[in-house]
Design a protein that fits this description.
CATH topology of the largest domain: TIM Barrel
Structural class: alpha/beta
CATH superfamily of the largest domain: Metal-dependent hydrolases
Number of domains: 2
Mean pLDDT: 96
Largest sheet: 9 strands, mixed
Distance between the termini: 50 Å
Length: 429
């Protein structure tokens, strides 16, 4: 099937200026991008005059089922948030709850212009099934916490996920190994995971240096920073690694990451809301480290609107460095698209709009008072746009939302399921 998007203002996320033109999609890939495409033999035409076309946003770190816990545990310190609210509620979640919570997150992401995401949780088969049904692109990871001996169950589930789902859903699903963090995985198991990742060329998704408490704990245990600890275990030698948060890094830590495969997933809103701190994003990028943008779960970030994250990322760097020129609009947009694609290891396929790449793109309706006039499109999108401005979401050449209407998710059924399940999960906690 051929789909032609006509008359959009196109932002490719490469290094060319925005221009008005057409995008031809043939099957799952972009066939051509030109100021005008005629006689394309398209089966369907989307008239996109007055809209901006850009690559779909890529959420580089998520916990999708946490959407069931949105607004349940706000305004708490991190450990209280985890131990008194999150952990007890998550312990009540059934595999079916996980499925519907993930689907709720996917509905929100599609509606706000996210086309791909990296997820770490449990019951990942259910999340993979939701990805397959909704049409999104995802990198899936079974979180590995080794605080007690489970007889190898978690690792078996992680390997089963990789075997069962890698390359499935028309190639939209990729997988990673997920050792949770420096403080929940002992050194010998870290070495086992790293060895496996290197042997089988499996990427690794982990949390790093999210809080000052984590830094103090690892310093107490190993007399090292969390980054230094993982460096000496060999994490950054060969494996492709996604480092979620990476808030508390000193200059030496950043030096340890130079030349690594993968990069950091910056989660500015979650880090702000939980009082974790401001990641040294500008310093990382200046050292050649790839940085993507994620939301973290809705239990902490509240929403999964990547436009909020883009705005927060840019403004936090300007504030932290006392320099309004830090992390300019275009760079922030690239982080949420090409940067996140690089961190997820899928930059060959998505993250920019160009012929030959997968057709993952969004159309943003600019015909709104808060998006007019259009002096500078990247600035407008980075600083003024919100997820609700997205009109159309396309993944792998398939239209998942058109005119703000979801085409692969029954919203009425979804909201009914979410309402009854969320009430049961949090009752009495």
């Amino acid at each position: 099937m051929k789909l032609l998007v006509k008359g959009a203002t196109i932002l490719t996320m490469r290094h060319d200026a925005p221009f008005t033109g057409d995008i031809l999609i043939d099957g799952s890939r972009i066939a051509d991008i030109q100021p005008a495409i005629r006689d394309a033999g398209a089966d369907e035409v989307i008239h996109a005059e007055g809209m901006a076309a850009m690559p779909g946003l890529i959420n580089a770190h998520q916990h999708t089922p946490m959407s069931l816990l949105r607004g349940f545990s706000d305004d708490l310190k991190l450990m209280d948030w985890l131990e008194k609210k999150m952990f007890p509620a998550e312990a009540r979640m059934t595999p079916e709850d996980i499925y519907w919570g993930a689907k709720l997150a996917m509905a929100e992401m599609i509606r706000s212009g996210t086309t791909a995401f990296a997820d770490m949780y449990i019951h990942m088969n259910e999340i993979a099934a939701a990805v397959e049904e909704t049409g999104m692109r995802a990198s899936l990871t079974r979180g590995l916490v080794f605080t007690e001996d489970d007889g190898g169950r978690r690792m078996a589930e992680a390997l089963d996920l990789i075997k069962r789902w890698s390359g499935k859903a028309e190639g939209r699903i990729t997988t990673m190994l997920g050792p949770h963090s420096p403080y929940t995985v002992p050194p010998e198991l870290w070495r086992e995971v790293i060895r496996l990742a290197e042997q089988e060329d499996i990427p690794i998704h982990t949390h790093l240096a999210e809080t000052v408490e984590e830094v103090a704990l690892i310093r107490e245990r190993y007399n090292q920073t969390p980054t230094e600890y993982l460096y000496h275990l060999g994490l950054f030698e060969k494996a492709h690694v996604l480092l979620a948060h990476s808030v508390h890094l000193n200059r030496r830590d950043i030096g340890y990451l130079r030349g690594m495969r993968g990069g950091a997933a910056h989660n500015p809103v979650s880090n702000l809301k939980l009082g974790c701190g401001i990641a040294p994003v500008s310093e990382m990028t200046e050292q050649g480290i790839a940085v993507g943008i994620g939301t973290d779960g809705a239990g902490s970030a509240a929403t999964l609107d990547m436009f909020e994250e883009i705005r927060a990322a840019a403004w936090l760097q300007k504030l932290d460095y006392g320099d309004p020129a830090k992390l300019p609009a275009m760079e922030a947009l690239r982080m949420a698209t090409a940067g996140s694609a690089s961190v997820l290891g899928i930059a060959d396929e998505v993250g920019t709009l160009e012929a030959g790449k997968k057709a993952d793109l969004i159309l943003i309706d600019l015909r709104k008072p808060h998006l007019q006039p259009v002096h500078n499109l990247p600035s407008l999108l980075a600083y003024c746009a919100v997820g609700a401005d997205v009109d159309t979401t396309i993944v792998n050449g398939r239209v998942l939302m058109r005119g703000r209407r979801l085409l692969t998710i029954d919203e009425d059924e979804l909201l009914a399921q979410v309402s009854k399940r969320a009430r049961r999960i949090v009752e009495g906690i």
